[in-house]
Amino acid sequence: MNKSLKIVFLLLFALQVLPANAQKIGYVDSEFILNKHPDYKVVQQELQNLSDAWRKEAQNLDKEIKDLYVQLKAEEVLLTEEMYQQRLKDIQQKEQEAQAFYSRIFGIDGQYYQKQAELLQPLQSKIYDAMERVSRKNNLAMLFDKASVPSGIIYTDPRHDYSEFVLDELGIEDNN
């Protein structure tokens, strides 16, 4: 009986100690946090203005090319074959320049995406630092980002959402 009493106490002690060693985890929604940050709206507006200007420039190039085709079609009967081919070649050159412009601005490593990264980097760093401080304050072993692709998070319990804490850390009011 003495031996079984020791085993019971040992089990009770183990049940008390094991939960204390469990790692705490949580998650945030960085997209939610980013959309609540006032600086993000400024960055978005600046990017929109740049994008609009570049799109207008691209549209002007397209219009110029269309006008050249219309002009070529109108003057087709007056031109020699050699002159016609030269104008056609010039128009095709203009089309290639327009395509190069579009790729240089909106391509994978284009100026638009470089500018976006440049403008968002300080804001993302600020948010990351706030996430780190919240994780340390709440003794979190892991903090997942619900918005990251692919997140792999299938279900989240709102009790473990630390997004509001990050907003508080950044000094941002959540006015839904």
From TrEMBL:
Alphabetized UniProt keyword annotations: Coiled coil, Signal
The UniProt record lists the keyword Magnesium: no
Report the superkingdom from the record: Bacteria
Q: Where is the signal peptide?
A: 1-22
Q: Which residues form a coiled coil?
A: 44-78
**Homology family:** Belongs to the Skp family.
What's the protein here called? Answer: OmpH family outer membrane protein
Q: Which organism is it from?
A: Algoriphagus pacificus
